[in-house]
Sequence to fold (376 residues):
Amino acid sequence: MNDLQKRTWAEISLPNIRHNYEAIRRSLPAGCRFLGVVKADAYGHGALPVSRLLQEAGADYLAVSCLDEALELRRGGITMPILILGHTPPEYTGLLIEENLTQTVSALAKAKEYSAAAQELGKTLRVHIKLDTGMSRLGFLCAGDYFDIGVGNVIASCKLPNLEPEGIYTHFAVSDEPGEENEAYTLQQFQLFTDVIAAVRERGGVRFAIRHCANSGAVVRYPQMALDMVRPGLLLYGYGDESGRLGLLPCMRLVTTVSTIKHYEAGTSVSYGRRFVTARHTRMGVLAIGYADGLPRILSNKCSFYVAGGYAPQRGSICMDMCMLDLTELPQAAVGDEVEIFGEHNDIEALAREAGTISYELLCAVSKRVPRVYDK
Fold:
């Protein structure tokens, strides 16, 4: 990285991502495919570099949230199969086919729209059917009284002209959370998923080449749910409570610098809203990171960062482009020193708890203006 850019940056370890991919892959049953989730710019790690690594390493599929994310990968030279998890307006069916993208179908009405558009083009669109087994988000309703209707709608969708129903999947709500109730709910979702697949086969003669439901939590906690393909997301990047079970490594370190150090007497208010007032003579550092870079304002006065071999508390409201760090107990800290926001010395999970959120959000929040520096 050019020293002139050395304000705030994210260090991404591609070797760690490769390590994680290989460790997860080794845990899978023979023949099980690997889908790498690279939506949201690969959880902030950079969709193109991560996708290039996975393509070269031999992954079978990638998943993104929307058409724009898929096109970014295709324009960047990614040729492997890509599944779009979210909705794509049917007027883009031609582009989906042209770019060899796989589209999620979550309702009969959407299937009909894609079929009609593909028919008009005289081409075939590859799709994966999504079932709502308890996430209560996208997907064919199939629980309880909706079972027969859901099965019928899936069969009808799969038999529409110019659609190739390659796969079927669902998403677990609490597979990554401990406790008997969460385990029971996940097992219930899995049972419903397999019941619908069996009914679709028996009643409609429809068989799917790829059945997938194992997200990050299920990959580790429920290996019996691997089926034909798994979909690790956060797990691939070495985060989450389950990552330790497979010896996975975190892949991002967020770093900033001390841009200024000032001395304040007791009774000095700091930053917007005067939410911190010094109780003593204070040596205060100004850091070159704020909420526009992805450091949540809600962390104001709640966290510490690692600098000069020790930890220093953040003080005052976090601003758009900077925040303040109390360096009184670290006299060795100097202007220009690196400050680790999260990484080897500052656990992102602990930071997420202080923010009342999850590590997913902190990773995805690292903004585009923060340069990514890749360790290859």
